[in-house]
Amino acid sequence: MKLIPRLLIVTATATLVMAASPDHSPEPALYGADPTLTLEIGVAIDRFSQQGLTLPELSIYFHDDLESCDGHGGLFTGETLQIDLCTDTTHFIYHELAHAWAHHSLTEDTRQAFVEHVEAPSWANGNDPHDQRGTELAADAIAHGLRTEALSDAEALRTAWVLERYLFLTGRPSPRLET
Known about the structure:
- By secondary structure, the protein is of the alpha/beta class.
- Helix content is about 45%, strand content about 10%.
- Helix 2 (about 35-50) links the parallel strand 1 (about 30) and strand 2.
- Helix 3 (about 90-105) packs across helix 5.
- It starts with a helix and ends in a 9-residue tail after the last helix.
């Protein structure tokens, strides 16, 4: 396994994370997905489960317009456990699933610790810039850490700070660091 020395620094911090469940995530209800997207969602959900990151029971809707996602590529709504995907990029599939995992699994203490760790203005305050909210930084870290593509040594070094955030949130190194 490749390890980035900087990742070792936060190993003690990872104890703030709620223990990951070994249970498998339930199959989501999919609406408007073609066979390729259905397969891609399945791969992503399996990737979460393989890492012990259990997702809640979700409804996932695919749209042809950004308006259905408030102008974003995807949107997670915690109250209804619904994901709306308005682009079919792998990044948004993992990113929105990461929002669902964080909503389902992270304690308020862990969310606050992450906000302080990354110096975000808040976890999800709508008055803060979207890309600076802790929830967005966390979803980006989980999405980057779980993607199925292996990391080259150079890419792992360039993205060490994102992989460190993945470790902070999950308590384990990214599977992308394994060879």
